[in-house]
Design a protein that fits this description.
With 168 residues, this protein is an all-alpha fold. It folds into 2 domains: 7-60; 67-132, no CATH class. The protein is globular and about 50 Å long. It has 10 helices and no strands. The protein has helices spanning 7-18, 20-26, 28-39, 46-60, 67-78, 87-101, 107-121, 124-127, 137-145, 154-163.
C-alpha cells in the first residue's frame, strides 16, 4: 500500500526537480538514486526517506562537477531547444561543446548560450534549474554586504585537501 504524500514529499519533489541538473553535473549515479528516493519506490517512512536522501545528497555533492558530466548536462539542456534553433545555432553549440571538452572554451560560454535560449523560448523547466544559477543573486548580494568573496573552486578546496594524500 502506497503512503499518502504529505507536504514534505511535495516540497522534496519540487526541490529535487529544481536541482536535478545540478545534481547530475555532480554525480549522475547519485542523481538517479536521489530521484528514486524522492519517488519513494521502496515505500519508506518519512524518517528513513529523509535520512537516505541526506546521505546520497552528501555523496553526490562530495566532489565538484566533472567536465564530462557538465557536458552531458549541457547536451541534455540543448535538447529542449533543438527544434527551435537554426542549423547555424545548433552547429555553433555543438562546436562549442567540443571546444569545452577539449578545454578550449570555458563552461560559462555554454551556460550563457543556454541561458539566452531559456529566456528566448521561455523554457520553464530549465529556468527553474539551479544549475543555471547556483548562486542566486540574493545570496551574492548578501555575500557582498558581508564583505566576503566568492570563488567557486574555493567551495571544494577543503574537500579536495581532505581527499589528497598527505606528503611526507
Amino acid at each position: 500500500m502506497r503512503r499518502r504524500r504529505c507536504r514534505w514529499h511535495v516540497v522534496a519533489d519540487q526541490v529535487h526537480t529544481d536541482n536535478k541538473l545540478l545534481l547530475a553535473a555532480h554525480s549522475q549515479k547519485e542523481s538517479k538514486i536521489l530521484g528514486n528516493i524522492v519517488a519513494n519506490r521502496e515505500n519508506l517512512g518519512f524518517r528513513e526517506q529523509a535520512q537516505a536522501y541526506r546521505e546520497h545528497l552528501a555523496e553526490a555533492l562530495k566532489k565538484p562537477p566533472r567536465s564530462t558530466s557538465k557536458a552531458n548536462v549541457f547536451m541534455h539542456s540543448f535538447g529542449y531547444f533543438s527544434k527551435e534553433l537554426t542549423q547555424e545555432e545548433k552547429a555553433h553549440f555543438l562546436q562549442s561543446i567540443e571546444g569545452y571538452k577539449k578545454r578550449r572554451i570555458p563552461s560559462n560560454s555554454l551556460m550563457t548560450m543556454l541561458q539566452s535560449w531559456i529566456a528566448r523560448f521561455g523554457e520553464e523547466y530549465l529556468k527553474n534549474q539551479t544549475f543555471f544559477e547556483p548562486f542566486p543573486e540574493v545570496l551574492i548580494e548578501l555575500c557582498q554586504d558581508s564583505q566576503c568573496e566568492w570563488a567557486g573552486s574555493e567551495l571544494f578546496e577543503e574537500r579536495d585537501n581532505a581527499t589528497r594524500p598527505q606528503k611526507s
